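[stage:ingest] chain + small molecule (nicotinamide-adenine-dinucleotide)
[stage:ingest] validated
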Amino acid sequence: MRRIVFITGAARGVGRATAFAFAREGANLLLSDICAPIEECPYPLGTSAQLQESASRCRELGSRVATAVLDVRDQAQIDAAVEHCHGELGQIDVLINNAGLVGPGGMPAHQLRESDWTTMVDVDLNGPWRCAKAVLPDMLSRRGGTIINVASTAGMVAFPFFANYVAAKHGLIGLTRALALDYAPHAIRVNAVCPTSIRDEPQLDSGMLTGVASMLGVDLEDYEALSLPHHPLGSLISAGDVASAIVWLCSDGAGHVTGAVIPIDTGFTAR
Ligand SMILES: NC(=O)c1ccc[n+]([C@@H]2O[C@H](COP(=O)([O-])OP(=O)(O)OC[C@H]3O[C@@H](n4cnc5c(N)ncnc54)[C@H](O)[C@@H]3O)[C@@H](O)[C@H]2O)c1
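[stage:predict] done
[stage:export] tokens:
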């Protein structure tokens, strides 16, 4: 039977690459995104056209796809999308908490406004908790399911000038471990992936790395050149690298893996 996979932030970037990877595995998909700007975020977010592009390319790969415009800061919108999915596709087997912001940032912590802090935590940490809350009743009733939280190397080690992002992603790793313990007796597995900087790719409409470089006041080439010496394998990663790890974590092959925090970072956090 085809699994039903709910992905947040699926309009572009890692969310879109993960949707393609699950479509190739034969899954049906609930693809969602905010499809609107967030005032505090200094770079543009995904659009409805990009979400529809992700959906139509997954349909070409053979998946049935439902889409939902939702903000992970709003529990009612998330619950409505899950309800819509029940009617269109069925109950959710897999949740990929991918939607996230990296900005506002690029400044020391005392310069962050109250809203810079609360917006980041509300999207990057509270959002995954809300989405988990929405799908866990389905998973509990069927005694099984998998949740992946897309954290960051910034959830494992600190980076200067992104205190709100670092704190939210560290919190997301704590949430991952707590959920893993709470739901292991119900055969529900919860894991986190921690990507290093992901190269932007035109076919994924991704632009987060350009946003990070701009917040730090450097151009993208300089940012990459400064980053590479800290990566033992000598490269950054692609969104497809993250998607492959996610698909494996959701597979039967990873059936005994829960509470894991997996760096996909070409060795960045090994030092
Ligand atoms: N790009 C990187 O270098 C990098 C590195 C480490 C971790 N990550 C993490 O990977 C995940 C995906 O990042 P990406 O590089 O694809 O970024 P991206 O900005 O290209 O994609 C994120 C998507 O999330 C959506 N989104 C943002 N806020 C939302 C909200 N409140 N509700 C619903 N959707 C929302 C955006 O519209 C966007 O389409 C994020 O959680 C990010 O923190 C990215």
